[in-house]
Records
---
Amino acid sequence: MIFEFRVKNYLSFREEQVLSFEASNSSNFASQYFVEVKEGVHILKLGLIYGANAAGKSNLLQALDFLHRFVLKQRQDKSQSTGCVPFQFDPSYLDMASEFYLCFYIKETKFIYTLRLKQTHVLYEKLIYYPSNQPALVYERTFDDKTEKSVVKFGSRIALDRSDKTLISGLTIANSSVISSFAKANVQKSIFNDVYEWFSNNFMRMILPTTDLFAWTSSRIEKDEFCKNFVLDVLAKADFNISAIDIEEKEISVNKQIENFISVMDTSDDLKNEILKNKKFKTKDITFLHKTKLSQAYLSKNLESNGTLRFYGLSGILNKLLTSSCFLAIDEIENSLHHDLVAHFLKTFLLNSQNSQLLFTTHDTNLLNEDFLRRDVVWFVEKNDLGESVLFSLLDFKLHKNLSPFNAYKIGKLGAKPNLGDIVLTGYGEEK
């Protein structure tokens, strides 16, 4: 589980911003909201972020997603960019390093990962862990400007022999992480395995409003009957009147129109050539059974509403969160959904999840009026006159317990709202 994340000089974040999942001393809904990963350490399972459009809400999720992808993906060669984008509105920051910090727990063990990098190479990278109350080094990586080579130093407690360490060091090119180099190396099992598997299996890719959750969930329910029944149960409790899901494989012949579409499709050349050679391909037809007092009928995806398809996709995500220990960020969770459905989804997650975390951005201010919402999970992002995004917590305002966060936000007391101008547009719409 993630305990704390920090970012500096990345996208719209100029100065360091800190997002914490440490639970406050409030006892409200304690068993639903946080996990005691070890004695005295309580980590929240939920975080939500408000702010005006273009304030930087999505950029915070993008920063987490960038760190996740950078840790896992090794570049093909050292000439490629790291993909890091520094703050653009201050020329002095363009050549400065972007900085990331992630404190997380794997079971009861605390880890701290630190990264400083530019668009061309990594300047500094470090991973420590806490086998006891004292930290121990996993590795520390620096960059030698003279030789333009990364230098990796390993901790003394890491169960790797000299040849394994040499191999990982040799694979660590300037624009990639040490952990991604470990993934390429044939070395003995060590604490590296736990860290790599956590980033790979327990840190999910960010979900955008445009992410195709329908395909993701459909793939899961096709392989897992338990997941299929779970999704049906969630849809039924959300009042979608869907009692069955049918998946049928169909073979489609390739005509000239389909050939033209396949030729520009964003997929591997091998798959394109195979389809074009065989003049046919297989696809899955998914339909949903609806029952009414008049009759029952299977409806195709094209006949379902956007809200139905969105919640169907999120139901598969919910199954993943409840059956494993994952971190997931969702941008604009309410996309195509009624407020009551969003609240229902969140309450289902909070009540039934064990060690998963959900962080999301939202414009659904009605959530601030919900009795089930703890104040320590609410964050705001606001962009100042310098064009930089600033992150702050609802707890920073020290609102009286009887004062509604919804009302405080609505009247502008909490900031993070659009600064709108006059609705009168002089000189437009007049006849000339």
Note: The chain is about 30% helix and 25% strand.
---
Amino acid sequence: HIVVAGLIVWAWFVSAATELERHADVRARLRAELAALPAPLTVAALMRSPYLRQVSMELRRISPVVQVFFGKARETFEFAGHLVPKGWSVFWGIRSSHLRGEIYAEPEKFDPERFSPARHEEQAHEHAFAPNGAGDAHRAHKCAGYEYAPLFLDVFLVELLRHEWTLLPGQDLALDWSKIPPAPRDGLRARVS
């Protein structure tokens, strides 16, 4: 679990650097909000940063950390017209769930506003937003770090935006889907100052 958690946050960090590089408007707005945070940083201050929360949630929605979650059916249920018996192995394509057009408007687009109070698209279904798995962490298949890992991402975003960075030119940032988590084909090289 510790290794998987390291991969999860690494994938989120890569998405943060690439998406904020591509979206200067989001970067500027987030930087302005984060400029008011105290030093040293506190969890309470992070929780009072609504746009940070929106950006963090959008990064977690679009980041293809793992393609599927797995488990066993605890009871027989029906899904999409198919009966799934108790005890069967069940695989959930979490990435595809996060890209459903009936839940998220323009699902391929990086859009932190989808998590704003005006839109709150993640509330369209109880499992519409489940980057760390669904249900209760003690009784369902949800990552034990479901609270810690997003906090780690928030701290990374604060630290990243306290600096300037540029992604070095000439690198292929298309994801290599043969890796878990999928990573940019040429890695991710950046200059940070």
Note: The chain has a mean pLDDT of 89.
---
Amino acid sequence: MTKPPFPRTFYVANAIELFERMAFYGMFIGISLYLTNVVGFGDVAVGTILASFRLVSSLAPIPCGAIADRITFRASLILAFTLYAVGYLVMFLYPVKELALVALAFMAIGGGFMKPVIAGTVVRTAPEGRQTEGFAIFYRMINAGSVVGKTLVYVLRVAISLRWVLMNSIGASFAALGLAVFAYREPERGRGTATPLSETMRGYATALKNLKFATFLVIFAGFYFMADQFYVTFPKYVTRHIDAKAPLEIITLINPAFIALFQGVVTRVLAKVHPVTTMILGVSMGALSMLVMGAAPGLVGACLSGALFAVAEMTFSPRFYDYIASFAPEGKAGMYMGLAFVPQAIGFTIGGQVSGVMIAKYLPEVGTRAPLTVWATYAAIGAACAVAMIGYRLATAKATVTSAPR
């Protein structure tokens, strides 16, 4: 039986996702360097700024997604990429402190509109029975955008200068804006079914009253704390302590490459392991990755650490979303999945604040550096998270046995 084809808008949305990820990952891999070396912020200030940026960008999809349902997906995409393009342009043309903060705010809000709209387009346009395949294509676009964007900014940084890496983001944003204006068509399926924002927020509040669920969201934020260090600490660690001309963007491609090659294998191997146990393994592997980074301070250690963290991510991430969905009452899975941003918001926010202090003290631009202290601290935080998760696993298992009918 012939499968129904994906419509044109599905492919347009995925092309938009590709350009957006090119722009974002191309910018974000070097943003800590840009804010310090070009704009002039100190290490601690950069940590605080990026923590705030990650917090806003993690939370923005909630209200922006609700607004997008009302103003149409197409209008939301046009708004999103107008904000993106202006933000990247301002950062490039006027690299001064005040305007850099405005530019980052534009990017965060732009992402708040873009993320739910593209995911929503996949849901609305994928034919019945092909949604899993549709999201597989969507995730490939994310990884493809990461690979292309980071490769281009490496060339721009080495061939011209750090400031010019934003030309990749500017060009990709205008390309996405052009697709949104001239090629994207509003999906008809699912229109007119928007849930009021007030109702959505009440649903979130009810979900967070579940102590087991809320505890899970807080404890498991430790994984995202570690993940964020590959974007906040790693660029300064590589360029300051290893080699100013090291291909840091290329090194970070190890992560998407390993995931593309081995995610299926890891998922099959761990398919029968309890979700929380699997996530404990993922966090523990992440902590080991942090320790390797500091214990082997060189390009080989950095590459090995990146590969180990890719395994950690492949172990942790799929079961994380499965486990969140398991808390959802009938018909509430979508709302509960919306709370998947909470651990990211917590982990990224704390990660930015801690990294700024650690970089300033132990990875200064000039002076004695102690990379093992930095990465061992991150590893210790990851290990503490794993221990807390073991406690959570034991406590929830005991509660399940205690509450079982006799």
Note: The radius of gyration is 21 Å.
